[in-house]
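[recover] target loaded
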């Protein structure tokens, strides 16, 4: 620690005071630790035009917060987004471990203020300076391998979750010469959730921010929790309440997170949004379409199927030709701490807690006894609530029989669960609701009815556009088409439509 710097910032009154009018404020700390840091930023013409701060607690917190306030005054939001905990500590000449919390509080306060900036509608880059009167502005174009010294590299935004896939995607973009900025979405905060297993919790955001800063990449957090609850979680709960098995990840990607990150990317001056998904993009005569990634075991095109094609031209998937093992190998070569990080197998808002408990706490779907029936309507046993079951389920039915039984249907109104042998689940005809076709139905040649299931030959008779009801005819039977899940329509391997499974019949 540099004692002179430390004393200078403790005594610095320059930016001490209340938040400027119209400022974006972030705060960290409080009663639990006894130290508190607050930073307020006013943005004007793409720059931080005014900064104020306040602190409580130890002198180190005061010094670190004052130092960060000085660092960002006059900076662009992108420049401020590069400031890490280490940078805050270095501004004081370093901090001993016992005082490092001060740098963390100051950095956290800054990035919470930047989070508010990111959630605004402001442009976050300065407008280009006007050329002298009578002269024409010229923007040099980069070549394929390097950027001339007087050119600006292509800027891209990376959707960074804190996992190995997005980290490697960021590395690949940086290696090809792009100016990379990281965006992490915060979707859910729940004390019952195991935050270490969730990709969008406040803890995951901190991990992603630390990873981005370790790569020298500026980082922004985008708080979408309110919209996520309304458009994804509430519909997930409503789906189970009505006897369906919804797929919230497709809804989130298609309607919430990708579009919001693209909007922020544009306001940051980025040409594209890059993600670590295992998927690809192809072009036909009408424009871009989604296709599978090379690693069939990791292909995520199904989960991205609800993305509007018009967004695909602004997306990039650098992992499209890579396998998971290859991605981990790249991460290990670069010494990334997430190289062997385990993947979460749960929905982000269910991580570490059971579905039944979640539905009870957030949707008031409480257990209530009902009948387990066979297809003839005979009672075989009792259950504790239809919402605990999904079509195709075999385990946990609670009925003894000479043959394996599967859930064939659930009835939310009667609170019954119907079970039967596997053959009762087979279907050759699926009715889909709220369907979207990006290409004419006559081009559809296959459908996927479940994540990781293989594509089945199929036919659809419908025109391009939206359809309240659509019938998909299968050329071979499929087992357990679950109402509420997504049917993804394909043409020569490209995603050309999707809809929600409503009814399956033989």
């Amino acid at each position: 620690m540099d004692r002179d710097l430390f004393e200078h910032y403790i005594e610095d009154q320059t930016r001490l005071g209340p938040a400027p009018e119209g400022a974006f404020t972030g705060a960290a700390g409080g009663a639990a630790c006894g130290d508190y840091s607050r930073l307020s930023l006013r943005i004007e013409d793409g720059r931080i035009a005014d900064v104020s701060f306040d602190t409580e607690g130890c002198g180190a917190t005061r010094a670190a917060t004052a130092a960060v306030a000085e660092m960002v005054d006059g900076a662009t939001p992108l420049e401020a987004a590069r400031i890490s905990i280490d940078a805050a500590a270095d501004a004081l000449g370093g901090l001993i471990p016992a005082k490092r919390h001060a740098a963390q509080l100051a950095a956290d306060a800054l990035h919470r203020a930047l989070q508010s900036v990111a959630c605004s509608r402001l442009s976050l880059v300065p407008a280009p300076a006007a050329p002298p009167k009578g002269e024409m502005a010229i923007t040099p174009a980069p070549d394929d391998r390097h950027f001339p010294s007087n050119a600006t590299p292509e800027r891209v935004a990376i959707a960074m979750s804190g996992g190995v896939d997005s980290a490697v995607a960021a590395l690949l973009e940086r290696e090809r010469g792009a100016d990379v900025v990281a965006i992490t979405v915060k979707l859910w905060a729940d004390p019952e959730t195991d935050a270490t297993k969730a990709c969008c919790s406040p803890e995951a955001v901190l991990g992603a921010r630390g990873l981005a800063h370790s790569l020298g990449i500026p980082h922004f957090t985008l708080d979408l929790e309110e919209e996520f609850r309304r458009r994804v979680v509430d519909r997930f709960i409503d789906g189970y309440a009505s006897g369906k098995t919804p797929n919230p990840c497709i809804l989130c990607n298609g309607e919430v997170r990708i579009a919001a990150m693209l909007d922020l990317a544009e306001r940051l001056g980025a040409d594209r949004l890059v993600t670590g998904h295992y998927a690809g993009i192809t072009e036909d005569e009408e424009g871009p379409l989604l296709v599978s990634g090379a690693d069939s075991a990791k292909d995520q095109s199904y989960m991205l199927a609800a993305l509007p094609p018009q967004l695909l031209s602004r997306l990039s998937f650098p992992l499209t030709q890579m396998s998971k093992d290859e991605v981990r190998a790249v991460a290990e070569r670069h010494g990334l701490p997430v190289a062997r990080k385990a993947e979460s197998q749960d929905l982000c808002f269910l991580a570490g807690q059971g579905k039944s408990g979640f539905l009870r706490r957030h949707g008031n779907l409480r257990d209530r006894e009902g009948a387990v029936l066979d297809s003839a309507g005979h009672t075989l046993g009792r259950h504790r609530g239809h919402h605990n079951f999904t079509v195709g389920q075999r385990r946990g039915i609670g009925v003894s029989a000479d043959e394996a039984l599967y859930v064939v249907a659930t009835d939310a109104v009667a609170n019954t669960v119907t079970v039967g042998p596997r053959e009762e689940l087979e279907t050759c005809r699926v009715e889909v609701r709220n369907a979207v076709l990006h290409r004419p139905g006559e081009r559809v040649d296959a459908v996927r009815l479940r994540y990781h299931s293989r594509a089945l030959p199929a036919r659809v008779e419908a025109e391009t556009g939206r359809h309240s009801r659509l019938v998909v005819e299968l050329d071979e039977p499929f087992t357990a088409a679950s109402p509420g899940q997504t049917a993804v329509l394909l043409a020569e391997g490209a995603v050309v439509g999707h809809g929600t499974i409503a009814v399956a019949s033989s």
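[recover] notes: The two ends are 75 Å apart (CA to CA).
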